[in-house]
Structures are given as structure tokens and as C-alpha cells.
Write a structure and sequence with these properties.
20% strand; single chain; 197 residues; two-stranded antiparallel ribbon; alpha+beta; seven-stranded mixed sheet
Amino acid sequence: MGGGWPRLCRRASTPVQYSALRRAAARGLTSGETFQPDGADARVSGRTLSAMNDSERPGLEPNRPQGQVPDAASPLRWIMATATGGSYEFFESLDEAKAEPDGVLVMEGDDGGTIYLVVPARDVKCSPLELERLLIEIDEAIWPGAYPHGRRLVYERAPAGTGIAGGDGGGASTGSLWIHPRVVAKGLEALIRRILG
């Protein structure tokens, strides 16, 4: 999360998001993306984080710092769930997300500072490589010159009608494709629809 906590806190779009990030930072969380689990109900592929031992946690290895944010998770939403005691469930792949009725693809940039789009995973017809290329194009249009580690594809559980926490207004799981107004304003909607299928 190279931008560090001050940058993430500036990007929080609601008082709840800002407070969660500030509390997390106050508990000693750093831009190194580690945290100490405190019983929060963060979920990983259907299991609670607190019910797993280190070797079972996706993205974690016993020799890495305990509680490091898994690579497949959104660091912003993982840390918010941990700081607030909320829940957060993500998947390791598009195929895993497609197997779940509430599985969605979230494209985000600026370390979660902008949610570019949210779409039900079942509606994604293109390959993961095409998704990566689309993400790069969107990210470069919205945040020109941004460092590449701030953008990511995340597969999560988000039932239709729920919000996706993030800066710049966050995002929404609507049961169909949702695109951030800034992305639409850049003229990328037709490209997105064509690539997603």
C-alpha cells in the first residue's frame, strides 16, 4: 500500500471509513499492511479469519508476519473489517467468485481510493488477462502516472444492494454492472461493456 496511512485516510469518503482507518493506524498498523487479529469477523472463502490458523490463511505463510493482508484481498476493506469488527469475504480467483451467487469482481485504483467498477462475477466473459489490461487502461485514465501497485482486481462476496467501501464515493453491488461516474465521464463505458462481454 505504498501510499501509507495518511494517503488512505485522505481518500476515505465517509466518516466511518476515515474513523476505521484512523483506529487501525492508532493500533499500530503501518503501510507494511500488517495487523494483529483481534477477533474481527473477516471472512476468507467462507471461513472466519479467527477460525483459521496461519497456515490455512490464503496468501499467508508461517514465516511472514502474522496477520499480513492476503494478496487477493482489498487491503482497504480487509483492514476496515479488522478495525471495526465487521466482516469481509474475498475469493482467490474469478472462478471461485463465479461459483458463489453473490460473487463480484471489483476493480479499484489508488489503493482503494477509487472503485472503478463492480460486476457480478457470473457476468464476466473475458479472461483474467483481459481484465488486467482493462484495469490498467482505466487506472491510467483516472490516475495518470499512479504507481501500479495501487490498482487491483478483487473478487469478493457482495450481495446486490450492498455498498463497496472505498474512497471517491465507494462503489455498489447492484446485481449488474456498476461503473463509477468518473470512469463513465472518461468515455470508457463502451470499452468496459465490450471487454466484459
